[in-house]
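User: Hey, my collaborator sent me this sequence without any context and asked if I could get a structure. I don't really work with proteins. Can you help?
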Amino acid sequence: MVNYMTIIDKTTKKALISAQKDEITSYHIYKKLASIIKDPHNSEILLRIAKAEKEHFKFLKELTRKEISANKWKVWLYIFILRFFGLTFGIRLMERGEESAQVLYSKLTQIIPGINKILQDEEKHEEQLINMLNEEMLDYIGSIVLGLSDALVELTGALAGFTIALENSQLIAVIGFITGFSATLSMGASEYLSSSEEDLEQKSPIKAALYTSIAYFFTVVILIIPFFLISQPLIALSFTIVFAVSIIFTFTFYISVAKSISFKKRFIRITSISLGVAFISLIIGILVKIIFNIDI
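Assistant: No problem. I've predicted the 3D structure and written it out in structure-token form, which is a compact way to encode the shape of the chain:
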């Protein structure tokens, strides 16, 4: 085989060796995960992706003529991510990390025969395989979004109003918890009824209600914690808003990766709505305090 390493620049050589290491690392990640997960359908898909990554590694090895070992730390890191955050999220996150390799392959398609095959695999084949994965959580992502978004908007606003009207952190925390718990049951029941009306075979109304309720209650707990721990209501509210934005950021990032959709627009929209409602609730809290002369 022609030694193409003699006709490419030093920077490209280093990038090619780095890509070779990434390919063998990805191979070990997919192979390890395929042996762990119980779903035979997903296991087969992961083995097919692993096989493709191994072929890419072999091709690059012939080019670089170097023995490269996998990054063991990265293997275990992604195994953790894939197992605890879901296959689709983890794999798409890995693919995002390989964007630089795709740029490199595009650059070399006119120089090195055969590398175009790797580029095509990266852009199409693996994407098709990822879309074939079966993940229950993604089937119910709409229910999770419903629970999170409603809790963020409703409870953040309510806590902001309570902060001004009541000025007592412990009381605000208790009222917030009761309000949030009641809303959790209400949202779960509403999602159950809504899913039942849709009559979709692949979606269980009970599971949809559970996903919505769990997401809602999780958000409630996170948002009221500052009021249990901090005696100054305004400072507690500041932490609650920080927590709310953090939840929005984390989940929006998850959705944007798992579903391959825009992060920025979704994050700005949800954050603007949540903070907008909180601000309006603050104003209402001030008006209520003045009009009814509340002094607690």
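In plain terms: The chain has two domains: 4-133, 137-292. You can pass these tokens on to your collaborator as they are.
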